[in-house]
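Table 4 source record.
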Amino acid sequence: MQTMPPTYLAGCAIPTDGGSPADLLADGAWCGHGEPLFGVYDVRTSGSRQFSVQLPSSPRYPELAAVTLTSPSDGTFFVCDPRKHPASVYADPGRKFPHTPAAPFTCPSCQAVSFTVAVGFEAPGDDEEDPDDTSWFAIAVECPRCKWSGIIFDDETA
């Protein structure tokens, strides 16, 4: 079942109509809590359909486990920002958390650094009204050069 994307992705998270890399997320197997309610979205901006991806350098608290995308035309933006998810340990607006992104992800097959991107957000069973209230996140990418694809990161957001 489809949910709405988090509000901070308005305009760039488009409900998918299928196709890789979204197909890798379509079955919900990545949902860490096994909830039946989740959404899968293709990421697009007005100027880009391909992005470099920066995963967290360390997923350990208190390092912010955020994921950013960058395109030449649209700059860098968060595609997963745990500070925006109300049940996250990072949601405290009075605290600052270190954020050190890793080097851009490279294709394990051809070493390219630009990808088409799909994201998935699991919704907790007790709240399907607030699109920012998510319990799990996953990102899948496809290399347009060699067609390698994979789920490259997933994390609990609640």
